């Protein structure tokens, strides 16, 4: 015979009521929160997966913010570069206009005045700031203006060559800035000629231009040293590579003042040279777009076209300015193309992150969200069972041998 004490009856009944009440409370909590798993003990396996998914969603949210910041920064830079191209193109149009031989000195000064305005606009654009107040073209020196005037009044680059990057996904970084030195300052300069200071006073080299890029590439970026001398009673033009000293072919080799000749794909003219005079064709120089425009303004204001030398200098100014402006435009457009590729990469990554977040949220919802129809049904059943258990316990708790006497 198994003896069951009154204490066992009460303990078992209370424990059963507590279990039923706990289940009922858990179901009520699920309905009120909308979540099937509110604490790890509800479903340890699901809780671990939900935690991992929450971390994944948090990571995606951070990367999405970074991608948005990168997109905004690159779009701002792209817009700034587009404005720069417009300004350089307008200066080029004015330069072509300045090359019209029928213009008067006043006409040239009027053109110069507009170019000065355009130069100021370009400086303002290159000193654009981002939303945080930092200059976008100063590299890591965000608090320093990218371009400023030096003691001589010329615009010079003030920043460094740093490039900021931002991580937009695991192992995926994108540059979000470009220093102004690479875009606006270190631009290949049009090939030009210089007369040695010891030459005859009127000796000059004019009309320097590249006519054969293939032949020119065999020498560039080295300079070309040219010498005029008399050999066996014949005045000749000889040339050599400035770095290697290798001789270069000159066509024609006979010197005639004012007549053009060609060396390594470069055409030029030397005038009024004496024996032993030397000239240099510069091939690898770099020059900022600001210096190009400043030189153009100075020439428009100060070159006197009244003499053949003045006219030749003016013609060279126009030709070299056009080439340098084209090089500046090419530098800016090349950076625009690069930015387009970066923006495409950012957009693709943003799309991937959004899809990944949607997928993770769907899985988390399946694991975590409560089925209201099932939960409400369970709540009704659990309420019924708890009520029945309470009534049963009430009846059992009144049983006693004294009730039978």
From TrEMBL:
Residues 322-399 form the Flagellin C-terminal domain. Coiled coil: none annotated. It is found in: Bacterial flagellum; Secreted. Its main location: other. It holds the Pfam family Flagellin_N. It comes from the Bacteria. Keywords: Bacterial flagellum, Cell projection, Cilium, Flagellum, Secreted. One of its GO terms (biological process) is bacterial-type flagellum-dependent cell motility. GO terms for molecular function: structural molecule activity. GO terms for cellular component: bacterial-type flagellum hook; extracellular region. Residues 15-140 form the Flagellin N-terminal domain. NCBIfam families: flagell_flgL. PANTHER family: FLAGELLAR HOOK-ASSOCIATED PROTEIN 3, FLAGELLIN. Belongs to the bacterial flagellin family. This is Flagellar hook-associated protein 3.
């Amino acid at each position: 015979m198994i003896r069951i004490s009154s204490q066992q009856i009460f303990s078992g009944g209370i424990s059963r009521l507590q279990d039923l009440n706990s289940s009922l409370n858990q179901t009520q909590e699920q309905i009120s929160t909308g979540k099937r798993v509110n604490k790890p003990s509800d479903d340890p396996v699901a809780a671990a997966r939900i935690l991992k998914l929450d971390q994944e969603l948090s990571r995606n949210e951070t990367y999405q913010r970074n991608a948005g910041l990168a997109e905004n920064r690159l779009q701002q830079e792209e817009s700034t570069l587009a404005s720069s191209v417009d300004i350089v193109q307008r200066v080029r149009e004015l330069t072509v206009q300045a090359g019209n031989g029928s213009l008067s000195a006043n006409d040239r000064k009027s053109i110069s005045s507009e170019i000065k305005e355009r130069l100021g606009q370009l400086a303002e654009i290159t000193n654009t700031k981002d939303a945080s107040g930092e200059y976008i073209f100063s590299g890591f020196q965000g608090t320093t203006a990218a371009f400023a005037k030096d003691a001589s009044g010329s615009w010079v680059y003030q920043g460094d060559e740093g490039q900021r990057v931002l991580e937009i996904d695991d192992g995926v970084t994108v540059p979000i800035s470009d220093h102004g030195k690479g875009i606006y300052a270190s631009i290949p300069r049009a090939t030009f000629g210089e007369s040695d200071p010891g030459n005859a006073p009127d000796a000059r080299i004019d009309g320097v231009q590249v006519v054969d890029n293939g032949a020119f590439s065999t020498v560039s970026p080295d300079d070309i040293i040219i010498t005029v001398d008399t050999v066996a009673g014949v005045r000749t033009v000889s040339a050599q590579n400035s770095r290697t000293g290798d001789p270069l072919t000159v066509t024609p080799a006979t010197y005639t003042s004012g007549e053009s000749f060609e060396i390594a794909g470069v055409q030029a003219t030397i005038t009024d040279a004496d024996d032993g005079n030397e000239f240099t064709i510069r091939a690898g120089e770099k020059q900022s777009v600001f210096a190009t425009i400043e030189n153009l303004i100075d020439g428009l204001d100060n070159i006197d076209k009244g003499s053949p030398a003045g006219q030749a200098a003016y013609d060279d100014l126009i030709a070299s300015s056009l080439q340098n402006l084209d090089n500046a435009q090419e530098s800016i457009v090349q950076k625009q193309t690069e930015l387009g590729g970066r923006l495409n990469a950012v957009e693709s990554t943003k799309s991937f992150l959004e899809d990944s977040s949607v997928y993770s949220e769907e899985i988390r919802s399946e694991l975590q969200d409560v089925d209201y129809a099932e939960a409400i049904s369970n709540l009704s059943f659990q309420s019924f069972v708890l009520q029945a258990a309470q009534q049963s316990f009430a009846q059992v708790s009144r049983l006693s041998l004294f009730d039978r006497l």
